[in-house]
Amino acid sequence: MNKEFRLPDVGEGLTEADIVSWKVKPGDTVKVNQVIVEIETAKAVVELPSPWDGTVTGLLAEEGQTIDVGIPIITIDDGQGGVPEPAKPAKQDEPAAPPTRTPVLVGYGVKPGSTARRPRKTGVTRPASYPSTPSAPPAVRPPTPTPTQAPAPTVAAPASVVPAPAPVVPVPAPADQPARALAKPPVRRLARDLGIDLTTLTGTGPQGSVTREDVQQAARSDEPGTGATVVMANGVSSGGEERIPVRGVRKHTAAAMVSSAFTAPHVTEFLQIDITETMAAVRRVRELPEFADVKVSPLLFIAKALLVATARNPMINSAWDEAAQEIVVKHYVNLGIAVASERGLLVPNVKNAESLSLAGLASALDTLASTARAGKATPADLSGGTVTITNVGVFGVDSGTPILTPGEAAILAFGQVRDAPWVVNGELAVRKVTTLSLSFDHRIVDGQLGSAVLRDIGAMLTDPMRLLAWS
User: Fold this and answer.
1) Which of these is catalytic: 252, 266, 331, 442?
2) Percent of the chain, pLDDT > 70?
3) Cβ proximity of 339 and 1 under 8 Å
4) Structural domain count of the chain
5) pLDDT of 222
6) pLDDT at residue 218 is higher than 90
7) What is d(CA 452, CA 467) in angstroms, rounded to the nearest whole number?
8) Entry pTM
9) Catalytic annotation on 442?
10) How far apart are CA 21 and CA 117, in angstroms?
11) What is the extent of the structural domain holding 222?
């Protein structure tokens, strides 16, 4: 029997997702829990497993297409017989059907990296849609009579006979359609952002696939003075305008930032501090055997100082419940770290960070950042944060006015560490200096509390012995 698999809600009440890449094609045999498609939601890239054993009979959505939750995206014949369910290609100009009670797939299925990825095909065949109603069964043809056998009368098929499913006929790609370039989804996204037509590039990756370096080299070759021309995906040479569809993480981030900016009254305070001693502590900690396999950076001490300051000032780790008109003070800290990834700005968080040792926190931060940059952060990783750190110093920036993550009362920005003149014991010296910026929700956090938190963090980073004493 032919079954439709509808796009499920993979968690957090999402309403749509983009099809990143298909891992199967019509005619493939699939097993339960085998990854069949990779989708990009507003929060993460998720691999969806097959809910049935069977044969793929149709792909109802194309790579790059945005699909509403509840819309069919693939049909699979489970081999059980029966009348096929009607399958219609996903159309976004029609109202979405009410979503079925498909189980939420958070944490369900094959783990990332455990399946071999199928090489991309130069053309994807699309099946013809199934008929909405089965056609009438033909009359049963009598057998050809032999010389010793009288002709049998024509017998009409009984009404109870179920017609066979209509055959699925692949529709070949048009002869003039260009071959699809081999490239991973992040590379395709980069090419779209830069306006590069992948079919015009010669790939240097495995099996001739186009790499990030290939795309970046093509973009650089179009700089003034090179004499090269890069053809945009729409066939127009670069130098004019470019339109980039807003979807996925960018769409979610834009909506969240607008909501935060116009909902919570933001206040930002700044504090410039001498962190020479903290930088020395970073170098000493790197030499300890407990930290041999993890990355130790100043961010680790910033995170630990924020956790200690939160314990000393619990109201900074709270949220405003507009519906209930209550302030929710959280006695656990899910520490968010803003990460710049190929998909855009992500803010995964370390769950119950306040309970971790310094070595455990270093390992958690390292794993979290690596997972997010690789595009493998799950919706669970990106949900439930209580307070956030954004490291703008890695971009060579001294400070900023960060916007609150929706649902949180504070966000700390950490600027670049640089040499600067500083007065130490009445003498002018060159010290390692940075600027901290703390934005907070003024409905919850007044100036006294915000200043106390920022002052505590600054004191612990100026003198790491305070960090030990207050922990």
Assistant:
1) 442
2) 72
3) no
4) 3
5) 55
6) no
7) 15
8) 0.56
9) yes
10) 10
11) 181-233
